[in-house]
Every structure is written in C-alpha cells, then in structure tokens.
C-alpha cells in the first residue's frame, strides 16, 4: 500500500491517543469525489493524521442482501488507491453483524473516540451510521462534543453537467463499455488486476499472443468488446490491445475472459499479476467467418489502438 498504515477490524484500532482527521465511507472506486474529500482531509496533515474508515463489503450485504452492487474495485485495490490519494492510515472494518449491530453512540465512542482519537470528522450531508442507520450528522455532532471531535460536512463533488459524481454513474458507464466516461469520473483509467492464466493459445497461432485474465479478477469487468489499454507488470507499463468476452468466432468459451496483447513486446507473463487499464472502447465483440478474418480485424484494431495510446501517453 502506498504510504498508508492499515488497521483491519475493530480490534485493530490503534488506541494510541494520537489526534486524527477522519472520514468515513464505502469509497468504492476512489473516484474524483472521494479524492476531493481526502484532499480536504490531508489539509490537516502536520497536526492531524489523515485517516480513512472504509468497509470490506457494501453495507447492503447485511441490510439489503438482494440489492448489492458489484464493486468497482477489490478491497486491496481500494486500500492502495486510498493510500495513493494521500491517506496516512486506512481502517477497514468488516461489515458484519458485529459492526452493523453497533448503535451510533457506540460507534462514536469506540471507533472515533477511543479507537482513533478523532479531532475532526469529515462526512457528507446525507451521512448515516450505526444500527439501522439511525445516526446522522446531527447525532454525530452531539457525540463529537462528548468525545472531543468536531464535525465538518463536505460538499458534493459534481461533474461539469452538474450531476453528483457517484460509483453508480461509473458502474453504468462501464456496463455500457464507455471507459472514457468512467475515466472522467474516476480521474484515472479504470483498472482490473489478476493473475495471468492459460488460454487456448489461439492468439499465439494468429500472431497476437495474449495474457489472459479470468476467475478471481480484482475490479469491475467492463462490457464485452475490444479496448485500447495499458498493461502494467513489475513496474513497467506496456501499450496493449485488450478484448473482453467469450470469443464468439470459435464458440467454445463459457466464461468471459480478458485477453491483452502487448504491442511490440513478447514476454511470458503466465502466473504473474498484471493490471489492465482501459483507455478507449474500439468496437464490440463480433463473430468472424474464420480465423483469418479475425486476424485481419485484429491487425486493423492494432493500428487504431496504437494511435490512441500514443496520444494518451503524450497527454
């Protein structure tokens, strides 16, 4: 994790009396709105440690299990992103029955007061906490007086069209394959991460060897299609053509897979962890009459992708 100390669970809170500036939220995606909050949090650095409280799963997992959105990032990705954004401490609380049963008074006393020695707490105007979401900004302010912290309400971060930036908006963009819109909301390219596995080796036969990701993937998989992308491994970032889907030309894949062809680079990544950044949607997934027609289209895609990635790298 980048520059942040991790505390996992209620029993791991520091209880050290060091004063902190604290914010609380799901932080799914760590998008531009989230980072604006963390920027404000970090304005206290020097006198107060910037600390983020987040959760290992969406609260709906416990309170509304039939309405749990797919996360934009994994728990590990989120912790990394929060550290990159400037948090010096990240507290991940498992959203289990123990946590969800805490009253708002108990949460303020045990977590914000005794556990983290909060001096200031930053929350949104619609912030709710405690069992049944019974706590709000007003109760938090009252409890802050008892436990030694003040409460600041942070403004919503809105895009140019005036809509509040949200994880839901980003998720909808990715479902439609609009990784460009998602990047605008995130403030960076959307990423997935995983271990490279074995595929059918067809890309190698066609002259376009690929690194294949499937199974336990970290991050939200965008819509099926072909994308201009970057692949990062071992501190090196490679331009790549990435496809998502079941490769309908051959029709023998049951699971959606991410396949990335690194441009002008041939390295064995099997068993290695890679990160794929999606830069731009190129075309939808389609079935071709034969392998030669697919290879021809892949060549055309590569030309378009090179131009896009060269412009992205120089921006």
Order of helices and strands: EEHEHHEHHEHEHHEHEEEEEH
Distance between the termini: 27 Å
- Amount of helix: 25-40%
Radius of gyration: 22 Å
The description of the largest β-sheet is: 6 strands, parallel
User: Helical segment tally?
Assistant: 10
Q: Given the C-alpha coordinates, what overall shape results?
A: elongated
Beta-sheet strand percentage? 15-25%
Task: Give me the side-by-side strand order of the main sheet.
Answer: 1-4-3-2-5-6
Mean pLDDT: 90
Query: Which spans have pLDDT < 50 for at least 5 consecutive residues?
Result: none
Tally of individual domains? 2
- What's the multimeric state? single chain
Task: Look at the helices and sheets and give the structural class.
Answer: alpha/beta
CATH homologous superfamily placement of the largest domain: HUPs
Question: How would the blueprint of this fold be written?
Answer:
Blueprint: E1 5-8, E2 20-24, H1 32-42, E3 49-55, H2 60-63, H3 75-85, E4 89-93, H4 97-100, H5 104-115, E5 118-124, H6 137-147, E6 150-154, H7 167-175, H8 179-186, E7 190-195, H9 202-206, E8 211-213, E9 225-233, E10 236-245, E11 257-262, E12 273-283, H10 291-314
Parallel strand pairs: 1-4, 2-3, 2-5, 3-4, 5-6
Antiparallel strand pairs: 7-12, 8-11, 9-10, 9-12, 10-11
């Amino acid at each position: 994790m980048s520059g942040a100390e991790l505390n996992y669970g209620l029993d791991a809170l520091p209880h050290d009396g060091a004063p902190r500036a604290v914010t609380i939220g799901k932080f799914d995606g760590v998008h531009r709105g989230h980072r604006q909050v963390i920027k404000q949090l970090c304005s206290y650095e020097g006198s107060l440690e910037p600390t983020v409280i987040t959760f290992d799963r969406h609260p709906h997992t416990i309170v509304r299990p039939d309405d749990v959105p797919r996360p934009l990032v994994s728990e590990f990705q989120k912790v990394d992103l929060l550290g990159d954004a400037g948090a010096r401490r990240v507290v991940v609380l498992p959203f289990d029955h123990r946590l969800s049963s805490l009253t708002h008074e108990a949460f303020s006393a045990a977590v914000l007061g005794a556990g983290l020695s909060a001096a200031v707490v930053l929350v949104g105007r619609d912030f709710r906490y405690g069992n049944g979401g019974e706590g709000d900004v007003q109760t938090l302010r009252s409890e802050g007086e008892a436990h030694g912290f003040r409460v600041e309400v942070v403004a919503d971060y809105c895009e140019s069209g005036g809509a509040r930036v949200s994880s839901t908006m980003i998720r909808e963009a990715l479902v439609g394959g609009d990784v460009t819109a998602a990047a605008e909301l995130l403030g960076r390219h959307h990423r997935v991460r995983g271990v490279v596995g074995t595929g059918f080796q067809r890309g190698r036969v066609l002259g376009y060897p690929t690194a294949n990701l499937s199974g336990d993937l970290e991050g939200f998989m965008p819509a099926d299609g072909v994308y201009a992308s970057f692949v990062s491994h071992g501190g090196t970032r490679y331009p790549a053509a990435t496809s998502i889907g079941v490769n309908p030309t051959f029709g023998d894949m049951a699971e959606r897979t991410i396949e990335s062809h690194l441009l002008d680079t041939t390295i064995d990544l099997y068993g290695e962890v890679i990160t794929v950044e999606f830069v731009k949607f190129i075309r939808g997934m389609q079935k071709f009459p034969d392998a030669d027609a697919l290879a021809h289209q892949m060549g055309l895609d590569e030309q378009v992708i090179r131009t896009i990635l060269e412009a992205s790298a120089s921006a």
